[in-house]
Amino acid sequence: MTKINCLNPISKTGLDLFTADYEIVDKIDDADAVLVRSASMHDMELPKSLKAVARAGAGVNNIPLDKCAEQGIVVFNTPGANANGVKELVIAGMLLAARDVVGGIEWVKSAKDDADIAKTAEKQKKNFAGGEIEGKKLGVIGLGAIGVKVANAAVSMGMDVYGYDPYISVAGAWNLSRSVKHIATTEQIFKECDYITIHVPLLDSTKGMINKEAFDMMKDGVVVLNFARDILVDEEAMAEALKSGKVRKYVTDFPNALSVNMENAIVTPHIGASTEESEDNCAVMAVNEIMDFIENGNIKNSVNYPNCDMGVCDKTARIAIFHKNKPNMIGQFTTVMAKDQINISDMTDKSKGDYAYLLMDLDTAVTDKVIADIEAIEGVIGIRVIK
């Protein structure tokens, strides 16, 4: 019986996919896999039984990736599962920035006791006039699952869309509208666009990428949207840009002591992926990733180990080996098999940074001696017998 612990509430739509071979347990102490959303795992003692962590969402800054990799624990995420929910909120954010809808709503609330509010509103509405997004230039920095959807939606709404992503995936390129202009540098987006939205992961190279230097290049009255990570934006510089009028509106999904006190900022309470559909989609993808890994050893959408997929095993046995990414590891594994007269029918070994993962299908059942011999090889982190 495979034991699953949920550190956060996980959609029943996903949990219902687990078969009778899986059991949801209350404690992580003896769990084989963990499902998590926002709970921080950095200070947790991870049990030796733990084989996988699946984040029902894209960001994994709440999970100790290196620590997990060192212990042979695969960390999954669910890229794209919440993309549509975030995309729709980004589009809403652009519309809220273009038209003073928020100000108008607040005025109506304040005038609710006015018996002649309809007449008063006709006089006041000029104070909430705005512009339209059709025909405006939108710069999309990062063309992953969310960025592509935002770009395509903006095209359909008549915007002139510029896209920047030097690492765009094949799938992203295929899905991107041909009307999106592919831009070679962020500088061009900063200089030319009326609206700028960022959809990049948080890395050392992207932290604070929207900063004073970037603002100095931007058009006066630009609108900046941030539904990715708060510290992608230098918020002290943003506060100054808002005060000076360089930035007309800052729309962000990350409330903090700085953002909530900025004038002309529209701040939502981190609800980008908070839709029933997104939560269901993330849970379904996370559960499927765990089940495929537990039952077949396949890795899809891991952030600390390489993707590795050999389908369903139709041979006598299958083993998975976690090991350091160093020379002659495969040669040592095959030597062990040859000594014990075990024929390898299929094998694949993938690497990611310092770590590698090997799946091996065999025509003979694996013995305890083979497992011990492999575990004794320097650089081996762990071994699992899948079948």
Brief descriptors of the model:
single chain, 7-stranded parallel beta sheet, 13 helices, elongated
Describe this structure in words.
The protein has 387 residues and is an alpha/beta fold. 32% of the residues lie in helices and 21% in strands. It has 13 helices and 16 strands. It has helices at 12-15, 65-70, 83-98, 101-110, 117-124, 145-156, 170-175, 186-192, 212-217, 235-244, 276-296, 329-339, 368-375; strands at residues 2-6, 22-25, 33-36, 52-55, 74-76, 137-141, 160-164, 181-182, 195-198, 222-226, 247-252, 265-267, 317-324, 344-352, 355-362, 380-385. Strands 8-7-6-9-10-11-12 form a 7-stranded parallel β-sheet, with helices on both faces. A 5-stranded parallel β-sheet has the order 2-1-3-4-5. A 4-stranded antiparallel β-sheet has the order 14-15-13-16, with helices on one face. Helix 2 links the parallel strand 4 and strand 5 (74-76). It is elongated and about 90 Å long. The two termini are 14 Å apart.
